[in-house]
Amino acid sequence: MLNGIWGFFVIGGILTGAFLGRMDLVTRAVIGGGKSAMELVFTMAGVVAVWSGILKIAERGGMIDALAHKMNPLMDFLFPTVPREHKARQYIAANFAANFLGLGWAATPAGLMAMKELQKLNREKGRATGAMCMFLTVNMSSLQLVSVNILAYRAEYGSAEPAEIVGVGIAATLITTLTGILAAKLLEGRD
Amino acid sequence: MRILLTVSDFIIPVTVLGIVVFGCLQRVDIYEIFLEGAKDGLKTVVDILPTLIGLIMAVEVVRAGGLLDMMTGILRPAAEKIGFPAELAPLSLVRLVSSSAATGLLTDIFANFGADSFLGRTASVMMSCTETVFYTMSLYFLSVGVRKTRYTLPCALLANMVGVFAAVWLVQTVFGN
Fold first, then answer.
1. Distance from C-alpha of A45 to C-alpha of B56, rounded to nearest angstrom
2. How crowded is residue B143: how many other Cβ atoms within 10 Å of its Cβ?
3. CA-nearest residue of chain A to B129?
4. Could you tell me if the ipTM is greater than 0.90?
5. Contact A25, B65 (CB under 8 A)
6. Residue B157 falls inside a structural domain
7. Is residue A47 classed exposed, middle or buried when 0-12, 13-18 and 19+ CB atoms within 10 A define those classes?
8. Residue numbers of the domain that contains A13
9. Do residue A143 and residue A72 come from a single domain?
10. Which of B150, B159, B174 is opposite residue A140, by nearest beta carbon?
11. Cβ distance of A166 and B70 shorter than 8 Å
12. Per-residue pLDDT tens for A128-179?
């Protein structure tokens, strides 16, 4: 699936570029893409390292374990195949909490560790487990309660009441997350 | 608004403070453990670097070649037919692929129609309830070498699509047109 999408992007992008006479821009994109990725990595490496360090302290102190315990009823429902004391649950809990608070950079290392732990439970390594599908679906349904960046842009562009959309935003986020969970539950076990 | 911004200023420092104080109370060797975690974090970044390069390159090629514009062009009339504001069609598609490109479209909408217009409000809500699906999926699945992603993409796309329509409907209901 991912190979297909990536191929579609690259092949489709170059062909439309040729068709629309935008090959100079495509050339710049091919060369510049790697460069902008490196720039992104330089900015994100420090942030991710800091959050991973903080996360580790929380883990050793037993905070994440406590958080995961509190979330057991939810976890039992979302990830019935992941045992209660498994590390995957802790990282998933940390990832959800960070996403919820809008700490995207803290969510990424926790999420990647969660995937690593879920992969340990996977019997067919190249194929996603139901728990992985559920985890990523919830993750991609946006958990963030308040998107501060958007409020800042609204203020910058002269909104009289930048935060007026917060309530509606929370309602919409709830709808997307519930939709994702429902869909993933219904498709559980399918290919 | 001011309260929200103050709260958001507090989230990161308070989270860090809470964790470090709690670690102290639990007699964790905080600094050493921090360094251990930071080292793991840097390793993670190096591990995902190739994925990021591939991703960003593909997204930039799609944007540069005009494929994304073409697809939103096709989407526009279809959106109009079902009563979906055509001006928001590009945003809903671009958002799945690139967060920075979507932010560009969002600020365009703000500049052209105003942040407090129906389109401005709806675009704001759309941005807050959706996610860069292509990026997240590639990063997480490829980091563990999973190729068969099964029903993840359909579920994520469905959730995002419902979010886009919910945004339009909610803003209409709460703020009117």
1. 16
2. 18
3. A173
4. yes
5. yes
6. yes
7. middle
8. 1-61
9. yes
10. B159
11. no
12. 999 999 999 999 999 998 888 899 999 999 999 999 999 999 999 999 999 9
